[in-house]
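Section 5: illustrative case.
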């Protein structure tokens, strides 16, 4: 088994204002403060299945709760796609994040539910980091939001 070597977020984050960053050409990609104004992509995940017991004890889809769930996911999805980060997500090099963004939406709705566990809630900040919604995530992706 190997040991040592670079790991995600090992050591301090690069400082875009340092001499070393200038020498190696590290600079943050500026994202417009006003957010993304393009077309919002389709939500890539299948509908979340919520089951209930029928009169005979069989598990059947709870259509009402599934509809409410989907509406909430779509609200969060739409809100995220109007954020400054969506300007980067829309670029081809960040296309791989589309499922992570969708999973963040789904996890957000799970965390809002009364049945959410501590592990559910602990996963949400990890998704936020992965898709650049947190300060650490933006730094790791090399993004910054420009001032007005």
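Designed sequence:
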């Amino acid at each position: 088994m190997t040991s040592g070597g670079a790991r995600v977020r090992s050591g301090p984050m690069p400082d875009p204002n340092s001499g070393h960053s200038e020498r190696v050409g590290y600079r943050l990609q500026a994202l417009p403060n006003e957010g993304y104004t393009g077309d919002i992509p389709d939500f890539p995940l299948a509908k979340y299945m919520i089951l209930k017991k029928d009169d005979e004890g069989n598990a059947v889809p709870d259509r009402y709760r599934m509809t409410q769930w989907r509406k909430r996911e779509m609200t969060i999805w739409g809100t995220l796609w109007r954020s400054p980060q969506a300007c980067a997500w829309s670029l081809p090099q960040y296309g791989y994040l589309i499922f992570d963004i969708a999973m963040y939406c789904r996890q957000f709705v799970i965390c809002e539910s009364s049945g959410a566990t501590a592990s559910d809630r602990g996963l949400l900040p990890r998704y936020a980091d992965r898709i650049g919604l947190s300060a650490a995530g933006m730094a790791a992706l090399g993004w910054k939001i420009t001032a007005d």
